[in-house]
């Protein structure tokens, strides 16, 4: 099938005379190059922009670790094909033929995340300048002076969504206890700086570029926060190879107090269990409750 006019116009500026064909979300040019392209509904605009801005920041921090963004915008009268196209967002990036992440590639990924991505610091504090989306969940973001304030806002946003859905009153009461007692107890003592996070770094968002064998990560939900928050989901939902973590900590050791690292990981995993409860319900609410039971029982200073 033919490529949409908006993509043809963008790529013709770089490659005059090029012709394009499209199969699904893959564009192929007459020169043999491939691109990832998508057009969304009008209400997808914030999601597309959040992904684009995340990729731009991550590519600046670690070139080649994520697909390079080529363009993201909204279709207007100049590049529409039909009137109904106007106002719909589009996204165009380089194409990566992605295969599963091997243990050896996970070592390289651990080094690059530690020394490049998590070395890229914000001058504006914790958070991000626009909303990003963890799955389908909107993270409103904004800027915060401290990490406890930022993380509390992230957890609070999920609690509000659960209240809106209804049926989670007791779960939300427990979330309130965690926000009041656990977040200050675990996060106030940290002496850290806001670094760029992928935000949704689970195994399904990692892989290798089959053309180079190098690791690649994608589908980000970025913000600036505590580096360890990026590590938690990687041990959930399938799991990133352990070689990633071992290599990562060679270059970026656990934050002090190191003895509370495991509890901090529980807290950061809680975010994703709550988010999955928002998205899917089911047993994820039970997993979130188990995490909160443990944190409220064992975090020093958080016990009743």
TrEMBL record:
Gene3D superfamilies: 3.90.1200.10. InterPro entries: Fructo-/Ketosamine-3-kinase, Kinase-like_dom_sf. Keywords: Kinase, Transferase. It is an enzyme of class 2 (transferase). GO terms for molecular function: kinase activity; protein-ribulosamine 3-kinase activity. SUPFAM superfamilies: Protein kinase-like (PK-like) (SSF56112). Its EC number is 2.7.1.172. It catalyses: N(6)-D-ribulosyl-L-lysyl-[protein] + ATP = N(6)-(3-O-phospho-D-ribulosyl)-L-lysyl-[protein] + ADP + H(+). Signal peptide: none annotated. Belongs to the fructosamine kinase family. This is protein-ribulosamine 3-kinase. It comes from Dichomitus squalens.
């Amino acid at each position: 099938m033919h490529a949409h006019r908006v993509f043809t116009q963008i790529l013709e500026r770089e490659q005059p005379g090029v012709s394009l064909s499209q199969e699904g979300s893959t564009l192929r040019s007459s020169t043999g190059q491939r691109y990832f392209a998508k057009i969304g509904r009008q209400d997808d605009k914030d999601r597309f922009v959040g992904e684009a801005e995340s990729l731009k920041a991550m590519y600046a921090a670690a070139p080649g670790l994520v697909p390079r963004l080529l363009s993201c915008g909204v279709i207007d009268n100049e590049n529409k094909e039909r009137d109904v196209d106007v106002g719909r967002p589009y996204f165009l990036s380089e194409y990566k033929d992605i295969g599963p992440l091997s243990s050896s590639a996970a070592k390289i990924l651990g080094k690059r995340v530690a020394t490049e991505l998590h070395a890229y610091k914000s001058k504006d504090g914790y958070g991000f300048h626009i909303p990003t989306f963890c799955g389908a969940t909107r993270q409103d973001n904004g800027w915060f002076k401290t990490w406890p304030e930022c993380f509390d806002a992230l957890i609070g946003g999920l609690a509000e969504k659960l209240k809106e859905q209804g049926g989670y009153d007791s779960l939300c009461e427990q979330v309130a206890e965690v926000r009041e007692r656990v977040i200050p107890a675990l996060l106030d003592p940290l002496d850290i700086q806001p670094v760029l996070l992928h935000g949704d770094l689970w195994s399904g968002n990692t892989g290798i570029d089959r053309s180079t064998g190098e690791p690649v990560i994608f589908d980000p939900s970025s913000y600036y926060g505590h580096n360890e928050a990026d590590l938690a989901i990687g041990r959930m939902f399938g799991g990133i190879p352990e070689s990633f973590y071992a290599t990562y900590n060679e270059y970026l050791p656990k934050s002090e107090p190191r003895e509370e690292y495991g509890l901090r990981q529980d807290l950061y995993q809680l975010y994703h269990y709550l988010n999955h409860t928002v998205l899917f319900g089911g047993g994820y609410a039970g997993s979130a409750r188990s995490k909160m039971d443990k944190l409220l029982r064992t975090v020093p200073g958080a016990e009743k």
